[in-house]
Structure formats: C-alpha cells, structure tokens
Amino acid sequence: MSNESTTITRSVLRHLDADALTAAARRESRSRQWHLPPTSVYRWWARRTETVTGAIIDAVATDSPKGDRLLIADPFAGGGVIALAALLRGHRIYAQDVNPWAACSLGTMLRLPAPSELDAAADRLYEANAHHLASAYSTTLADGTPAAVCNTLRVATGSCPQCQATLRLFPAALVSLTKRVDRGGDTGFLACPAGHVQLGTATKRSVCTTCGCYIRPSARYTARRIVKCALCHWSGKLTELATDTGFKWEVVLVERNSSGSSPGKRNREIGPPTQAELTAADDENWHPTRQLPAIAAGMETTTLVTCGMRHWHQIYPDRQRVILEALLRSCPAAADGDPHILRALETAVIGAAEMAGFLSRWDPRYLKAYEAVANHRFNFTTLATEPNVWGAFGAGRGTVERRLAHMAKASTWLEEQIGRPLVVEGPRPAEVRRSAMPGMVDARVVIGGSQRLTVPAASFDAVVTDPPYHDDVQYAELSDIFRAWAGGPTGSLSGDIIVNRHTDGTDTVAYRQLLTEVFLEARRALRPGGHLILSFANRHPDAWIALFDALQGAGYQAAGYAVVHSENETDHAKAGRRACTLDILIDLVLRQVDVEQFRPERPPATIEEEYCYRVGEFALRIGRLGEEWAKDFTRAIQQSSFLGEDFRKEPEAGAICLDRRQNSGA
Ligand SMILES: C[S@@+](CC[C@H](N)C(=O)[O-])C[C@H]1O[C@@H](n2cnc3c(N)ncnc32)[C@H](O)[C@@H]1O
Ligand SMILES: [Zn+2]
Ligand SMILES: [Zn+2]
Question: Residues 359, 123: contact at Cβ < 8 Å?
Fold first, then answer.
C-alpha cells in the first residue's frame, strides 16, 4: 500500500470546504465591486466568484510539487476573475478569450494607470468636452439654481392601426416617483390608460384631470407586450406599432441635479421637460457622424430587430451619440501619448454605451437607470431613459465619470494587493508564434479561439476555467453593444463556442467538437500530472453530455467533483424559474493515471444540490463513459425534481430553455 500512495493521483477538490465556500461565495456575489473592484472596469456576464476560483487555485498549489509560483491558464477568460484570483495569490496567468472586448478589456484591467494619472486624464477629457456637455445637459432647477440634466425619460409612441390616434405606450401607470420609495416617496408622475401624465399619489386610485378616466397606480399597460388603444379599443402586439426605423419617442420627464449645500450632497428634481430641455433633447439639434454596424439578428438581438432597431446607433438618441462620439474622439489627446491611459479612457467611454437611451429602463420606484442588457438579455422597454453620458454632479449610474472613478479605485486596490505594477504581455492575437512566457511576465492575454494556445507544450501547471454555457449566455451578441463602438467587427466570432439557434446553426454537435479541440490543446499545453479544473452549470442534459464527451474525447478522466454556490440568487428574472445557483466543479487529469476519486461527503441538502450530485456522479465516469451513457444520463437527471417538467418531454437538442423567452417582457 505505501508504494501505491506515491503513484495514485488524488483530486485537488478534497482541499475545498464546499459549505464554507458557498457561504463566502454568496457574500461575494452580493457585493462584487467591493470584493473584487477591478471587475468594475468592464462588463462581462455571469462572472464566477473569486472566492471559489481562488480556493481552487490554492488547492492546486497545495498539491504542487513545484513550489509556490504556478503558471495557471484560463482558455475562456471572459470577465477575468480567474486571472485576478491567480495574480492575487502571486501566481502567473495565461488568459485567452475569443471575444476581443473581453480580452482587450482584461488587458486594460490588469494594467490600469496610477490613480493620479487617471484623475488628471479624466479632467482633460472633461475639459475638452465641457462645451458640448454644457449644451447637452445644462439646465436649472425650478428655483433657478444651475443644474444638469441627469436622466431624460422618453415614452415610445405609435399610431393606432385602427383610429390613427398617437398612442403613448407607457408600460405601467407609475412613470416615476419624485422621491425614492425607500426614502418615503409616495407621490409621483402617473399615466392614465390614454397616456396623459400627471403628478399625483402613487398609493391609491386617482382620476385623470385630462380625460376623467381612473388611474390605478399598480396598472400595467403593456403586459405580455399587448397594447390597447383607449379611444377605439383596438388591441394588438406592441411590435405592430414599430415603424421601419423603430418607435417614435417623446420626452415625458427629466431628472435634474444640482450640487447641494455640502460636499457630496446633491439636490434632485424630477418633472416635465422645460422648452429649453426639450430643445436640448431633440434629435434635430444633434448631428452624429458615425454609423454603427447593423445588428445581426441572433437569440438576444432579435428583440431589438423586431422593434425596428436595425443598426447599433439606433438604440441611442442623437444627443447621446454625439456626446459618446465626442468623448471617444478626445481620448487620444486626453491620454497625452500614454497607451495605457488611452485604453482606460476608451474602455470607460465605450462602457458607458451600455446605458443606451432607447433601451435603458427607468426604475420608477428607486429612480435609477438600468443597463440595456439585464439578466443576460437585451431589454426593450417603452419607457426608456437617456442618462447624462458624463454624469451630473456625481449622480447617475454607469456614467463615464463614475467609471473612471471606479477605475482609479481598482487601480489603487490592485496595487495594494500585489504591491507592484503587473508585467502584462498582450493582448496579442492567438495566431502569433508560440513562445514560452518569460519568468518575469505575470500575465499573458491573448485574443482568439483557444483551439490554439500560444505556449509550447507542457507549459501550464494547471488549467482553471469556466467553459461557455451551451446556449445560456450569448456573449458575442451581448458584447456587440461595446464592439460596435470599439470599431472592430461585430456579429458572430470565428471559433466561438456557443449554441445559438438563430445564427449560423451552431448546434450541440459543433459545440462539443469545438470544446474537444480546446481541451485537446489544453492537454498539449498542460505539464505532465497537471489538472484541468472547470466549473459549469446547466439545466439541459445535452449541455452536460457535450461537455463530458468533449473531455473524454480529449483524453481526460475525472478525479473528482464538488458542488458550490455560483451566481447571485437575488437575480430577479431568474426567481421562480429555477435558475442554477450552484456550480459543479470537476477536476480532471490525463487518462492512464491511477486516480482516487473525490465526491462530496455529505448528502445533498436541496433539490438543486441533489440534481448536481446526480450530474456529478456521471462526471466521475469521464474517461470510461460507455456507448449508451448519454441515454442513462438523460434518464437519470430527468428524474430530478429540480428540472421540473421542463425537459421531461423533449430532451433532444433544440428544446433548450424554452421558458427563457417569457422573461423578456417590456
Ligand atoms: C463562461 S464564460 C467565462 C467566464 C469567466 N470565467 C468569468 O468569470 O468571467 C466563457 C467564455 O468563453 C469564451 N469563449 C467562447 N468560445 C471560446 C473559444 N473558442 N476560445 C476562447 N474563448 C472562448 C466566451 O467569450 C466567454 O467569455
Ligand atoms: Zn385607436
Ligand atoms: Zn387621461
């Protein structure tokens, strides 16, 4: 027996305390930007937690024969959490992603300028555009105090197909409170069913002073995207009212801010637009010069296309386009010749493009704007808000001013954690000649499909990664909102591993094939005895089948599995539809080694955990999955009550997550 213990491979997952990790990961996912400030540098969707990723890397290091500085690889780097987790622990990272927005922004995140340099550049950027910003947003409060427009709320309008009346398509009666509900706000602007807006109570029924009809504050007018004409009672689909160039929009409310009596305080006022504010918001008075690319119809972008938005610039009012264009144009001068400052400024300005004035939703109770993408999908709304791109006296979400301030904080934080600036190679394309990472390089960032990695054989101590989630998150489509501004190509990416039923017909077979290629390449680049540890979550059997087949096909066998908390379960669109809140971690080694497998010690505590254990038990068979395993697997996991009825009747590919579409209401 004593001989054997030197040759048997054990899973690194045995070092994890899954329950403690779950508790810590939950805390992290509720306050991400405090836990890991650099993630505020760029948007990526479904980022995993540093808590879990870091624990995996620590576990790898515990078993490493080599000493303390490992080279970790993440071939699906996305939001860069694994890269950060490795660097924070003093390891080196090789990070690659097929999506240029992710890879380039990751490079920016790892090489942020010093806060003082960023602040100075932000001032220069502001100064260069002060004149534009003033003509776009300067205003006054009702009492004459100088102020800035912080948000401009517009309602979509359309012509009734039956009586030709102009319909103002308010999604709900409550347009906006005047004070946040949690600060005692109970009055606000309400719309009657005919679209007349008036100030009144938001707590009980009132009567429209224009047409005499009742206004119920809780009424929804566009539920399931069906609209009604209050005059002739025509009723039909919202999309029927979109013209070839989208909806028409009418400004209904403006949020203004002024600096308050003491530093950090602000005065806020919400009310109907003044004539001057209407003029400043009017498309006629703004002349953008950049045409952005066409919106490629895909699983997520279809919502936009059916609402008449054909090009990316059509999701913005002209004023917002002009300001974004002007800011982007002045980034090089504001960066004063420093390429890292330039990248940081551009990342902040392009990042602000996610607050698109015809897609950003207004929260009428908490008085804030939301990004165009919510819960991994584009959210078309008929009450959209155009935020002040720069920010008004520090107010506003997602503004350039805020993004730059967050970057400065992230820069300080990273420097404090690591103690010195990182040495980063790249981002460089995946086609470059393969070369070893010199010892002084902390991170190499590569843009391109990980079917080709840019290192020689046996370079990595471990591969720690989250493979793409089958069809769950359409990264290429979602990131087009940024890629459109960044200037490179948009639309599908060559080598992207994603199932998308709307675009090029990539199916589960292609998904498995591409994954196999990446895992094979990772195997080449992994040192002998190295582990590949991945986390994955999915409700669809086909996704797991493809993943397991790909791993086995690339020559791996399972060393163990564990189940930990993954995403933020307060994510509201997912509530009530049994989203996955747990990830399965799978530890893999190359085949033909003796393995003592690891599995969770305690019995499952929830139905989701029970589901994960079922999947995990099959994962342990990777390396020796027989011919008929997929059928057994499908049968076994369909019996899990976690899946409910969803996949019992149609387990084959193409039936994936049919319930998803119902969550994208206007
Ligand atoms: C699940 S995400 C990774 C998330 C990341 N760990 C995080 O915490 O943000 C999967 C990533 O794989 C990328 N991807 C898809 N196909 C790829 C390929 N062939 N090569 C490299 N990256 C790919 C996607 O762009 C996406 O960023
Ligand atoms: Zn009508
Ligand atoms: Zn009315």
Answer: no
